[in-house]
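Q: Here's a chain of 786 amino acids. Please give me its 3D structure as C-alpha cells.
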Amino acid sequence: MRLALWEARHAAALKNYDDAARFYMTLFNDLELEERRKYLDEFVAVLEEMGSANGGSDYSKQIMLLLQSRVLFPHEATVLNASAKFFFVVGRLLEAFDFAQEAVSGSEGLSHIYALVNLENIKSNIMDQWHWAMLNDMNRNAAYASAIELVANWRPESRVLDMGTGTGLLTSIARRHFKRDVYCCEVDLNMCDIAEKILNEAVIRKHSSEITLEDIGSEKVIDVIITETMDCGLLGEGIACSLYDIHTRILSSSPATVYACIIESTAIMDEHVSVFCGCRFASDSVTASYNAYGTLDELEPYWCCSAAEIRGGYKILSKAIEIFAVNFDSRAELYKIVNTGITELRMAPIIRDGTAHCIMAWFSCVLFPGAPVLNTSPETTGCWQQALYPLPKPISLHRGCICTLKIKAYKDQLLCALRDIVIPEDSEIAENVGQPCSSDNDNNILLKGKNVEQESKVDKDENSVLPSKRTRHDSGTSTNMIISYKNYASPDTIIVLPNNDFPMMNDNQLINFFMRSLADIKRQDGMLNRNRDFYVLDIANLGALSIALVNAFPEMKFSCYNNDAHKLVHLFSPHTHNFGAFPDNQDSLLTDGSITENGYPLISSKPPRTYFEDAECSDVLICCPVSSHGFLLETSLNRVLSFRLSNGQAHIIPAKISVMGQIVNCPDIVKRCKPCPSAYQGVDLSAINDLAISFYYDIEVYYSGLMSKVANSCTVLDLPIPLLVAPYIYLMQIEKYQKMIVSPLNHPAIMATSHLKYCDIMKTSNLIIALQISLRLIVTANCNYS
C-alpha cells in the first residue's frame, strides 16, 4: 500500500497524471471507502490535471480512469466536479454539464458551491447570453419562417442546406415546408449534439467550406441555402466567405445593406479612449479602421453594443447613409469581397451641431422577396446589436458640414473610418469652425438617458475643435474647406492598451477614491512618527491610476504592475519606480534589452521580480478587484490573498468589498438568459431548457428604467477583501437571496452613475437581483467608492 501511495505521489510530481491516477486506484482497491477519503483531495487534484496536461491527445484512457473513479467514490461531489472540469477542458461540454448537474444535486457546503460555479460556467460556454437573445428574437424567427415558406411554395422540390444550424431551429422550420431532404451543418460539436437531440437526425459536423456532395447524399447540387451567420456588422461571422465557397462548389445558380450615422456619446469615448501624461491611449476597436495595412488579423474591427443601452444616451449628428451593399446571390460580388476587397467613399451630411465620438452602423437584409426584411437599426428591439466605430479623437461638427467615410469590406471585416470633413462656403458655418458645439436638447435626437451632455474625461483632457490649418478645394464658383481627420486625430500616434479597463481609468471618482485613501493612510503613518521610506505595491492594472498616484505622491516608493507594461514603461522613471509586467503572467514577461513598438527601452525582467518580494516590504497594496462590467476578478483576488499571506500588516486599498442587491423587473434581460417557447415558431426546443443561464452582466441600471419604487435594497455580502474567493461570489449571493428578499432591509439605493454594474438573474419569472459593488477603505469613513 505504501509503495502504491509513493508511486502515485511521485508520478504526480513528475506531472505523469495518468500514471498517478492509476497508482491511486491501485491503492484504493485495498481500502474501505472511509480510508480512501483520506487521500481524496490529492487524487482529485490529479484528475483535474489530466485534461490540461494532454491537450490534443486521445482521451479514451483518461475517460476510463474517470469512470473507474466514480465506482470507487460513488456520488462523491469532488470527483464529479473533477470529471466536469476534465470534460470542459477537452471541449465536451454537454458531458461536463451532466457531471456538474449531478454534483449540484448531491452536494452541500463548499463542494456545492464548486459544482454551481462549474455548472454556470459550462452553461454559459454552451449557450451564452448572445445566443439566448438571438434564439428568443420572435421577429427574427418569424421573418425566417416567412422567407422559408415563400421559397418552399415557389420551389418545393428544392434541396436545402441550413448552414450553421445551431440548435436546429431553422432546419426544423424548413422541414415542414420542403418536400425533399433538408440538410444542416454545424462546426461547433457541442451545438451539433444539441441539434441532434432536437432534430432526431445526424448533423453534418463540418464547416460549410468542408462539405462535399457526398455529405448531402447525392451528385446533385444544393438549390437553397439557409443561413443566419450575420453579426452586427454583417460580415463578421464570415458569411461572405462561406457563401462564395458554396456558390463555387455545391450551390446551383438576397441583398443586404449596411447603414451608418455619426453620433455623439461621451460614454462610448470613455469606454475606449483615455488621455493621460500627454498621450492618447485606446482600445483596439478604435484603431482598427485606421490601420495602415487596411486589414486586421486578431483585432476586432468594431465594438458591438445595443444603442438603446448606451449609458447616458446618444445624439445623432448626421443623416443615416448607406455605406455598403452586397447581393448574396451574386457570385461576382462575393468574389470581390473575398479575394480583393471593396473600398469606397461615402458622404454623411451633418444635420445638427455636436461633438462626434463614434460612427454607428447597422444592416438590413432581404431574406427573400415578399418576406419581412431583417432590420437591425437602433429603433428595433431585436437580438442584433449595432456596430460601433469609436473615433480616435472627438471632433466638433456643425450642421451643413459633410463628412467623408472610408469603407472597406474584406472577407469577414467591414471597416469604417472618418476620412475628411468638408466645410461648405457658408459664412455662418465657416465662423463656427473651431468653436465648441453647444448641446442640442431636442427630444427627437436625444435617445435614451438624460446625461448625453455630460463631458467625458477624454473631452476635458484635450480640446475637440477642428484644427486651424485647412486645405482649400476650389470647385467651379464654390470654395470648400477640406479638413483631414487623420491629420487632426493622428491615429498613428495612439497607443493601444488591450489589457486595461478604459471605463475604470476614465472614472475620476474611482481615482480620487484611491488618492484620498492613500493620503489618509500616509497621514496615519506620519502620526506614528515613522522615519522611513513608504512603499506602495500597485497591482490594479490601470495605467492612468498608476500614473496619477506616482505623480501625486513623489515621496513614496512605488512598484507598479500592468499587463500592458511594455506600452506604458516610457512614462515611468526606472530610477525611481519599479514598473513591469505581472511576474505571474508568463505571457507578459519581457526580455532584457528589448525595445517597445514606440522605441522605448524596457526595464529588465529576467530574472523576473515577483510581487511576493514586493509584498514583504510594502506598506500599502493598491488593487482593483472589480471590472467595469461588474465582475469580481479572480486573478486580482488571488493576488490579494497571496499578498496577505506574505504581509499581514500592510494596508489594502480597498480594504472591503460590499455588494448591495435590489429586486427589479426586466423581461428583456430574461429573454437573453432563458427559453422563450412562444418565439420558436412551434418548434420543440425543450432539450435546451436546462441550459438557461442564471446570471447576466454588463448592463446599466437606471432608476427610470429598471428600478422598482417598492423594491427594497439590502446588503448581501460585506466581506474583508483578503478573505473573498472570487469564483464562488455569484453562487454565495444566490444562496443568500432566497433568505433575504422576503424581509425588506433598508440600505442606500443603487447609484445610477457608477461605472460598476452587475445583474444576477433569478430562476423564476421576470424578477432579477440587481447588484452594485462598493469599494471601501476601513481607516476612514469618508473614503467610499460606490
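Q: Can you summarize the key feature?
A: The chain has a mean pLDDT of 78.
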